[in-house]
Every structure is written in C-alpha cells, then in structure tokens.
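Sample log: Outer membrane beta-barrel protein.
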Amino acid sequence: MLPHLLLTTGVLGTLLPLASSAQVAPASSRFYVGVGANLLSNLPFLDRGIVPSSFGPSLMVGLPFTPRWALQVGFSYHGKREMIANPNSAVEATVRTKYFLVPALLRYTVTEPANPVQFDLLGGATLVHAKGRTTFSPPSNNESTLSDTRFNLTLGPAVRAAISSHLDLTVNGLVSMRVDEVYNFSDRFFLNTSLGLNYKFG
C-alpha cells in the first residue's frame, strides 16, 4: 500500500507543474496591438530649410517571439496645410501635404521582461510616402502635384509601463534617416516621437 501511495504522489507531483505551465501562456506569446499619437519634426521631402512639425494618429501590431524580442509593424498619417501669401501680389498659394509612414521594427527589451516598467530598443526600416498639392487663389495654371516614396533607417529607445496585465502605456523616441540620396539636413533626418497604449492578448 505504501509503495503504491508513494508512486501515486510522485506521478501527481510530476503532472501538476506540467498542467499549470500549460494553462498559463508565457509572456513572449502575447500578440499585441497599439493606438497612439505621433509627432513628426524635420519632416522629409521638405527642402525649404525650415523645421516643420505635424501631429497624427498611429496604429501598431506586434508579435513577440521570445521574452525579449518582438516584431512590430505600424502605420501613421500626417496632414499639413500651409497658406503662403505674397505681399507684392494678390495671389495666395495653398500647400497641402500628406505623409503616410509604415515602420517595421524589431523590439529588444533591455530590462527584465517581468518588470512593470520596461526599457526597449527599436530598430528597422520605415516606408515614407508623401503627396503634395499646391493651388492658387485666384486659380492659376501653375498649380502642381507631387508624390514621393522613400525608405528610411529607423532607430530609437522606448519605454513601456504596465497599467494592467494586458495594457501598457508606451513612449517612443525614434530617429529616421534616409539611406539613399541626401539633399540637406532636414531631408536626411527626422524625429518620430509617439505616445500610446498597447493591448496584449493572451
């Protein structure tokens, strides 16, 4: 009887930890999505020697494949409208510009993944598409439309603070650099900072 009891206890002692680990998904398997707001400065495609800035909404989806490594892909939209008046003329120009950004970034968590506040390093590439249109009042034949698409190298830090087991407050500070042609400083570098919320599934 005693050997049978000991055998049963040993089997249960082996199976219970396995059952427990099967019921609790590891943090690295949590698919996550995010929403937030972006601020761009030194926007690309602008060769007038000024430092513009633009706010816009952003979306993001990510998938961790280890406790420290994850891949995330985002999308943000920025629109800008400028009125340009000439004091020596009655003609007024309106410049409308739209920017679409798609960053594909690797995320490496520097701190322990279980910490409530985590420090990350982000790096990858950003696809930037710009569309611009210039119109005049009164109407003129000099109205123009432009479109340009570029790839940028993107690097920067990020901080995540856990609000709950599924929700994180995030702050990113990214620098993007054009990797093909360079015209001037404002065209070569631009900053992309964001504040958002991530929701983790699982």
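Observation: Residues 1-27, 47-51, 182-186 have pLDDT under 50 and may be disordered.
Observation: The first helix runs from residue 2 to 23.
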